Amino acid sequence: MWKVDSKRVISDIAKTTYKSNKKRNIVTITAIFLTTFLLCTVISIGLSYWDTVSLRQQRMNGMDYDIELTEPREEQVSAIRDMDEVAYAGLCVKCSIGSRYGNRELDKIKFFWADTICWEKQVIPALESYSGYYPQKENEIMLSKSALRAMGIERPAAGMKLPITCENLAEGFKNDETEKEFELSGWFLDYTGESKGYVSEDFYKSTGVRQTDLTQGSLKISLKNPLYSEADIIQMQNAVKLAGNQIIEADYDTISNFCKTIAALCMMLVLVFFSGYLFIYNTLYISVNKEIRYYGQLKTLGTTSVQLKKIIYKQVIWNSIIGIGLGLLLSAMIGKGVIPLVLQSVNPTIDKYDAGDASIWVFITAAVFAAVTTFIGSKKPVKIAENFSPADAMRYIGVSEKIKQRNTRGGDIASMARQYLFREKKQFIIILLSLSLAVSLFEVINVVISANNAKNILNHTCDYDIRVLNLTLLSDREEQVITKGLLKKIEKTDGVKDVRVLTSATAIVPYQEDIYGDYYRELYNSRYTPGNYEKDMELYKIQPDYYSFTCRIVGIDSKEFDKINQSLDKQEFENGKIAFVSKTFTAGSNGIPGKAVRFSIPTSVQPKKEEQIKIGEVLDTFPAHYSAGYTPDIIVSHKYLEKLMGEKLLIEMIKIDYDESFSQDTETAILGLLKDNPKLSAESKLQRYADMKNTENQIIILGGSVGLIIMLLSLLNFANMMSASIQNRSKEFAILEGIGMTRKQIRYMITLESLYYAGLAIIISLLIGLPASYFVFNSFNRYGIPFSFPAVRNLVLFAAIILVCVFTALCILDKSKNETIIELLRKEDN
Amino acid sequence: MVILSVKGLKKYFTMGENIVKALDGIDLEIQKGEFLAIVGTSGSGKSTLLNMLGGMDNPTSGEVMIDGHDISKMSRDELTICRRRKIGFVFQNYNLLPLLNVYENIVLPIKLDGIQPDDTYIDTILKLLNLESKKYAMPNQLSGGQQQRAALARALAAKPTIILADEPTGNLDSKTSQDVLGLMKVSGLKLVQTIVMITHNEEIAQMADRIIRLEDGKIVKGGADDVESR
């Protein structure tokens, strides 16, 4: 056989074919470009989004560490710092509490001392911003913005004198108050919403609090590898020899949570990659399908299958180079130019280079994936072109599968639309899967965005819009600060939906072995043990009004009851027949429910009279704010408590719900009613949200960009598929018109078909997307937010899909409206 | 009564720098119930004329009247409805819809008009065209001849007043061709249908009431002025 050098001829045919198919190549290039762009942008913006969400979580925690050792001894601190697995460990001690500023009561502002490691490596990274410096002199103090707000200081200045009444937390000095004039050395903003401050080492030492005092000192440990198991912690515990009540607080679910997160991320990546793959495959399939007759002609002229393959692959390479190049370029422009600019405009403190800091590997991965996908995607259509006999190819009508005999008596427009849909089952499945996956991905991304939305998190972590607290309670100057007049004004404020009133008093609960016996035994065996069980119980029996054994009795209204109740009868509760108890130091119910507890209220109308109420349910949460001793708090109806207390009943707090959550106008109006009263403090969701604004804007922009890009891809996928489908069938439409189907009827048939496509894709996307969203949501859900499907966003996408499907198809059809039937028939035949 | 007429009909195509005169000033009148055969060599303009008569192509100039209506004054959809109700068209390459079976292809124009097809009549046509056993077959399961007969059945099914057929016997053997033409004639007589048929076959052309011959886009025999051939 003679060796024939056909390289040049093949190359020439490929070039000629390529040049003459400009429109089809543009569609293919668009698919490759969009997939590359999608991968690159979604991954790089997704990473930035993830970083920002993690940063916000860190700021909501207020400190960046992995585990903590409580009440650490000096030698333990040194031992832990020397451990190989420990990156660094910072010491932090709660040493004092600010209870009053001038004449303003404060809601127990905690003052901490942090060593240099803790401050620099664990606190600063978790702050959104800080001004000034860590306190150096004994009288210097650094306060959180929420502490300053509680003190009524809106515009802090370095060096400000702050007379604060402090409670010393040193063991043996409980409730010992001293007034101290601090000097403000700085202030900071985190997202904890807590009022707190940092003091100097000299001040800390002067309080007498020791780092080993129960619940005051802790060593915050940052590990080199934050993924640890229970065995790692036990090993560490053994190495540092824990004593007494010491524990290492750790989250043993770290590895399983990490695995869940990785699984969810993998699922999302699989969706991203697979939808990209199907998009390219789909487009190439349609593109090569259109060329089958042409390739058949080439075959009749003697082109071999190998040569045909080369002709197709050459065109695929050219399209890939252009598509991938453009995709990377635009992605770089968006990721490194547009997004950082937008982010900087909402948060000027952000570093421009941090905002769009996408790794080069993201670009490489996207390029390699798009190239590989293009070649894998083109394999199947190439095979079709190769395997068609020249005669079959010439007769090819766009249906490669044999159509089976069908005993149907259709022939009406609706049945034709259905038949066109299932024209080629394999292609139909691929198209539908490609569309559905893109939509599913959008659904999953939306759920992730929703799970990380600060408003959602705050709605779940705060059960009110604003809480107003009576600061005089538990002081020597208890008074009714939340008056009936104030309540009425608040209730009448525009935008206020509900006002829940919580009243409270300190109650004396005599020793009752049958009710609280198990509870006290478990408490004294726990790390929070108040001391010696036998000795204390003896004291309790003799002196039940000793502060350790008192509790709070809280009166709640029916609205609050509805919020917290799970099983109690409302009428019985209202009538004072049954109550809740709330406790935090032990787990489980300790056999308390079903028993009746005796108590008396020293500040009631009849201070000595012993009351009795049945306990129906044990709560792990506490609806009020102030607590008293170790005995579980009793929660009764407001009506019942009012009966016991009469005029002496004090309102501890009110919880206000707005008609529209996070309403600035309503909040301003309420704060206006409270502003002149230093004995009230207000804490609101909106304030915390405002503190988080910068990060939240970043999260919204990044998350929104990812969602938008995926939405765009889904829509373009639909547009591409529909336009190819209509273009492929222009001859059939001409025949239909020839035998009497009006353009109006053709438009109706296409509209029906588009609606079928859109409807099926939406149904399938929901079938895939809902379980996937649920899985991903649960894997990322760190705040226990209940799953909810972001219906509005998805409905917008669904509506857009339906519109795009219908309008793309109709627009493509309208392009041929000026051509005669014969012109259209000839065009396809040529 | 004239049911189809053309006056000064011209259709020119531009191919590169050349102008091809597919039809060059055709004048023609066709009476109701007339069976007309158009003959001519390949490229003489037969199919172009038939397409113009069916309103499937736009003339460069001239006038086409169907049942007294100037089709240039009709909108595209009006023309389609006119074609659906008045004309049965048999394409040279059949143009059956690949996704519909024979029955569905046949009844489609009727259903498009919102009318329920007369199944007895459809079965009669199918029987006469020897397509009974292929009623539910798909076009890709039919031979060329069967497809041609199915296309003819589609044209006849709606009982149109005009049948335009582009080589309806081109793929048929002589026996089947005779049967098909016989059916067309019987149908034409019974329903007073006008039949315009393109053919290469002189013998088949002889079955028509009138024959016109085209050459280079002009009628050279049998046109409006040719009284002799009528």
Question: How would you characterize this protein structure?
Answer:
The complex is a heterodimer of chains A (830) and B (230). Chain A has 830 residues and is α+β, with helices and mostly antiparallel strands. In chain A, strand 6 and strand 7 form a beta hairpin. In chain A, strands 15-16-14-17-13-12-18-11-19 form a nine-stranded mixed beta sheet. In chain A, strands 2-3-8-5-7-6 form a six-stranded mixed beta barrel. Chain A has four domains: 201 residues, no CATH class; 183 residues, no CATH class; 197 residues, no CATH class; 163 residues, no CATH class. The longest helix of chain A has 42 residues. Chain A contains 29 helices and 19 strands. Chain B has 230 residues and is of the alpha/beta class. Chain B has one domain: 3-Layer(aba) Sandwich (Rossmann fold), CATH 3.40.50. Helix content of chain B is 33%, strand content 29%. Chain B is built from seven helices and ten strands. The longest helix of chain B has 17 residues. Chain B is globular, with a radius of gyration of 17 Å. At the A-B interface, helix 14, helix 26, helix 27 and helix 29 of A face helix 2 and helix 3 of B. Chain A: It is found in: Cell membrane. Chain A: Keywords: Cell membrane, Membrane, Transmembrane, Transmembrane helix. Chain A: It comes from Lactonifactor longoviformis DSM 17459.
